[in-house]
Amino acid sequence: MDNTQPRMRWWGWGEDGNDGPVEPGAKKMLTETCGWPKGANRPPVELDAVELPDDDLPDDSRARFDELLGAEFVRSDHATRVSHAAGRSVPDLIRLRSGDVPFAPDVVLYPASDAEVDELLAICRQERIAVVPFGGGTSVVAGLDAFRRDFRSCVCISLARLDEIFDLDEESLTVTVQAGVFGPDLEKNLQAKGFTLGHFPQSFEFSTVGGWVATRSAGQQSTGYGRIDENVFGLRCSTPNGPVELRTIPATAAGPNPRQMFVGSEGTLGIITQATLRIKRRPETTLPDAWFFPDFHSGATALREMEQDGLHPDIARLSDVNETEFGLAQLGSAVQRKGLNAYLRARGVAKPCLLVLRYDGRKSAARLRRAGGREIAKAHKGVSIGGSPETMWEKHRFSTPYLRDQLMTEGIMAETMETAAPWSAIEQLHDTIKREIETTMAERGTPALVLCHVSHLYTAGCSLYYTVFAQQHDGHEMEQWKALKTAACDAMVDNGATITHHHSTGADHAPWLPQEQGELWLRMLRAAKAEVDPEGIMNPGKLMNGPTQL
Amino acid sequence: MDNTQPRMRWWGWGEDGNDGPVEPGAKKMLTETCGWPKGANRPPVELDAVELPDDDLPDDSRARFDELLGAEFVRSDHATRVSHAAGRSVPDLIRLRSGDVPFAPDVVLYPASDAEVDELLAICRQERIAVVPFGGGTSVVAGLDAFRRDFRSCVCISLARLDEIFDLDEESLTVTVQAGVFGPDLEKNLQAKGFTLGHFPQSFEFSTVGGWVATRSAGQQSTGYGRIDENVFGLRCSTPNGPVELRTIPATAAGPNPRQMFVGSEGTLGIITQATLRIKRRPETTLPDAWFFPDFHSGATALREMEQDGLHPDIARLSDVNETEFGLAQLGSAVQRKGLNAYLRARGVAKPCLLVLRYDGRKSAARLRRAGGREIAKAHKGVSIGGSPETMWEKHRFSTPYLRDQLMTEGIMAETMETAAPWSAIEQLHDTIKREIETTMAERGTPALVLCHVSHLYTAGCSLYYTVFAQQHDGHEMEQWKALKTAACDAMVDNGATITHHHSTGADHAPWLPQEQGELWLRMLRAAKAEVDPEGIMNPGKLMNGPTQL
Fold this sequence. Notes:
Oligomer: homodimer
Largest interface: A-B, 92 and 92 residues
Strand order of the largest sheet of chain A: 15-12-14-13-17-18-16
Shape of chain A: globular
Largest sheet of chain A: 7 strands, antiparallel
Radius of gyration of chain A: 23 Å
Strand content of chain A: 15-25%
Distance between the termini of chain A: 39 Å
CATH class of one domain in chain A: Alpha Beta
Number of helices of chain A: 19
């Protein structure tokens, strides 16, 4: 396989052939809350019709890239530029589908080694060229926008050819991986040898190790297997001022841990070219479990007790009333829903909240943890329905983004946002964010359907993940999106939560960083960046150098 | 109790009345390897005989401090200066006991609020006065030396009056604590309410929350309860350029986590005035276990399998042959040892390595984990002897530093050093460090007895903790210590390990930071520091600004 070919279709999520319809039950729910656009059909424009900014790369710079990489790996054809011009945020999709793409790299570069990445950054520094690092292109926070600012050009450096897996240390349970290795390739390699990374973000099929490390990624099993920041023991980062190499150690007290400065640096300090990650042996068993709770409060309390009691489910996902209803409507048949609802009503659950759980590990230990979890769920009025909802959820867990594409064609915008906060704040926060979104969208005349789930557990708190649907405001989609984003983000940061639990910062969340983290910290971060990137060429306009307003 | 009074005696560890003799068995072992100094008796000098540098604090600066805090909390009497002039490293003890103390703060300041700390740092910045923050004074890496450099004065800011515990969030299992709260005070408060922090460094009785956070501390139960860097969810740090306040959140993907820059900053960025920490409910049970292995390899392999299988003991400590022999000699009677050795020899264990374990939590889960651990221990030829050695170890776990004082009086130097590395490197590293220390000390004519244990487990590796005994080289103690320290640290850093797993950097480990972390990272750290401490007044000569050689 030629790894330089993009894995995702240029205008939307994933690959063709996976788009499913909006099921009748879900459509009914959307229609009742948001209304349904009459006869809308808004397919993306043709690739040729996409308008990109001119390719400004000076000839002498191009010649230097050609000489270093070979002309084959210095590409500025239309298709390559378009497919590296954006991530997959709502604004990205609006722009791509309409063919109006204001930011694009002049050229995409494909280095094949650490040394070539080092050399490329040295050239870009000398030539005053901005650099956007590119893994799988799944950013949903404008992490890939090619902001040119006052640089002579902006190039994209794709890590696609840094695709080797080396140094599987079976004794220390670590693996050293190049940045461009995609999720499924790594997982397949590890599983064949009896191991797993256990890192499954929703973007898993199309995202890379380098992207995960650079964006401080969390996956759907990270409650059990750990966030990526907990699983990086060593790394190498090319910077415009030379490489930083951090040896592989399990823990250290030698000052602030430099690994934690590069994990989450989002391409603003340099390009992470490889990382050494924790792996686990494939679990002896994985035990699914599922419960319906009479309300969000009961489910959240049960989850908190499970995590704080050390029962530590590997997967835990609690949907609120709206999300439960929508999920059942999209996945199950009307007959199934009717039967289920009757069953639940008979047990006192009128508006169910679905909790899916999975316990991985040795059989005896996993069973004991599941038994402990069941005691707690029962104590909080949970109604058990076996493991099949978890299995069903798992089967579909990477498919939701396709629905977003489908809905956009039908005139419905679908956006997701997420945060984390202490347990003591979670329920009020859940309501506040939901209310702010609903109010803002209703005032604009596009009432929203808001779904929410808890996706990650910690002893001290949990995450909240929102999905918002509303009719698109034709011709004003960007303005509409900004209003939605601002309402949600203000509600998060004003109420003590973080601006992002696992989507990272990019350009979209940067306006809220000063309020969350303080200007003084951002100055520290900028000063640290200036040591490795004195000219500021690395991913301009993101993170600490992001816009101060949307 | 007046919290401004030092808790430790001025010349050594802890409080009077806890010094025990070197037991005959241990003395025999030391004599056989190191020789025993004839008729040595080197008690510390009298407090009055300690020579300090002159108090250089300008009168106008003192007046500003007096005005802010009240003269009562601006102290430069001899006893106060001596008791804040050093930590408890071997060089500190050599200097204190001999009365020759080259570094001391001119004055010790006792602020009582965040605002007073802010204001003190602003004054010190204006007046060009260096600042050493002081918690419990237990640093063993020269983290407290009052390096004056070219500043007008050097002051010590004691956190002793920031001693409040507030905001116990029983739902989120966090507690917000002021920096000057001592270990036993916090733990007693929490335990009375049914909680525990579970943080028990050997310095527990005499160290503070602020010290733990500033030095990236790990405790004897951190394998189970987590290192302090894993347990800080929010913090406040006063800097010369204003306060940094980081809200309490369980996790975030908003760029590099700023908490991880301040945790481990060792007073070089500012003064951590409060932190919000993870707590746990007091465990339902704590199950001790203990095993003797026929060699270090078998024990280390068993520990690795336990941790990687998720059995996750809360306490795990594996002593090598020398440490096991020394421990039994110091704690047990000759008759007990004889019986034990016969028992072990009959089971094929001629040179035993002792492993003590503890499993905390719910009874059912802890029992299951212990049963799993026992299976593994047996598979690696471990001989079970019940839980009493763990209970015995726990009873004495804070007392070892007293032995160091006693030995120094008798002419024997005792030093400890620690590191961490991946499992695949651990056994060779154990041998290499031991050999380098032995060779260096033998060449100097003071042969060393070297003990070692594994103190902390991770899936990817573990820590190694060394204790070294040798006759003091009269009149050349500092030179002798430097040779020992250099041999051990070179061996660690040359072989891929970290310079410190939990003692932190201070001035003593700073020379090895460039090799371990790279000069570029240290430049980033210095640049970040310059934003909050433009004049460099905060704890000069430590961490990123430490000496480039000992």
